[in-house]
Amino acid sequence: MTPSRGRTGRPPLTEERRAEIRLKIAHAAVDLFVAQGVAATTGEQIGQAVGVSARTVWRYFPSKEACVRPLLTAGIDTLAACLREWHPGTGLGDALVRILEADERIVVGPDPATVGALVRLTRTEPGLRAVWLQTYDEAEPAFARALAERAGLPAGALRPAIQAAMFNAALRAAVEQHAWHAADPVPDPATARTELARAIRSALTVVGEGLK
């Protein structure tokens, strides 16, 4: 009997490695979008910037605009955890800003300047605007579940759903306000993060009474 052969070829990528590739593609896409516009950017160019084929790009993302998603979703789980663990009597703005300062993945991803440039593009690029808004739309149920758990309410309860919508809208407004009015040239990452934290605290103060 012929002995069976073991599996040959490259070993499958780990989830960590896949996430790393997705993030590299996201950075490359934003850089190209900023430099030459979305319409002029191709999947082949994005792949070349990362050292992968266009086929690999499309394996991870359904469109070139969707390539930016990893930069926008990095902080959702951290934000939900912040809402879940938010202590009564503590201002949500202060609690969130403390986590923002401790965890650089939250809200702005690993590079505030890159994500700021991306958010500015959403004003003129409908495809990117759709991805940006969809990201917040998908995050809102996670925020509602966290707030329901915090309050001891069943999932799907109306109050945490409304609270999550308020929180989500304030968060998006703060990030957009910060990105659209950022100084030119863009300040260093530490300064950008401090300014974003200030915008988030101000936005959450506005809606704070509705989130108690």
UniProtKB/TrEMBL annotation:
Gene Ontology molecular function terms on file: DNA-binding transcription factor activity; transcription cis-regulatory region binding
Oxidoreductase keyword on record: no
Pfam families in the cross-refs: TetR_C_14 (PF17754), TetR_N (PF00440)
Gene3D superfamilies membership: Tetracycline Repressor, domain 2
InterPro entries reported in the protein's UniProt record: Homeodomain-like_sf, HTH-type_TetR-like_transc_reg, HTH_TetR, MftR_C
Keywords for this protein: DNA-binding, Transcription, Transcription regulation
Domain HTH tetR-type span(s) in chain numbering: 19-79
Keyword DNA-binding recorded: yes
DNA-binding interval(s): 42-61
UniProt protein name: TetR family transcriptional regulator
Organism: Streptomyces griseoruber
